[in-house]
Amino acid sequence: MSLKVCSRLVPVVSNSVSALSVPRYSFCRLLSANRLVTPSVGLVHISSCKYSTKPSTAPTKPHIKEVYYGVLTPQIKAVKIFSLTSSIVGLIAQPFLYSEIASTGNIPIILAAYSFIGFFTVLTPILLHLVTKKYITHLIYKEDTNSYVATTVNFFCLSKEIEFKSDDVKVPSVPGMFTSFTANGKSLFLDPRLFEHPEHYAKIMGYDKPLDFKLYEDSESNVKKN
Prior knowledge:
Layout: H1 3-20, H2 24-32, E1 36-38, E2 43-45, E3 64-69, H3 73-102, H4 107-132, E4 138-142, E5 147-153, E6 159-164, E7 169-170, E8 181-183, E9 186-188, H5 198-205, H6 214-225
Antiparallel strand pairs: 1-2, 3-4, 4-5, 5-6, 7-8, 8-9
Helix pairs in contact: 3-4
């Protein structure tokens, strides 16, 4: 661009800036921010603002925290995955194994082999599920609803959540096998020593509630009748 053209553009740009009431230093900042100046028309095109003053409408997550983690969770998942995988492989290979075993013609061997294969392919995953289905892998406390969410593992080694409150918990007088308490009719098992905050265990088990002397009164009445 020659000096004559530049000298012609300076009055046009200065008049445009004065018409817009923009200070010189602001105009320099606009030029440095890659704004477009059209010399032929004498207009300054300013891009729209990229920032908004509207408050953020992003939904906030409820305040939750993990109060319990079962240390046997990795082992339980590994054993269940191995058992399910071996069962699937065993079911696929059963027709070939049965044909080979039946070709021997020995009935005791056939019965023993069928029992052994059926036990490891069908009964083993079922027995593991009966033992581990009550085990709590994670326990989360929701402060907004004052409730707990217990996570267990189902038959296919997938996580299953059970939400309950302390009022929904029933502690059996005689604890069953792998049962610490029942919540909404579901038996659950956990280790009290693994709680990060013991007050949550006391709240779940009802230790923070007044003692119930109904059992003691019933025992006294039975003694008097006898």
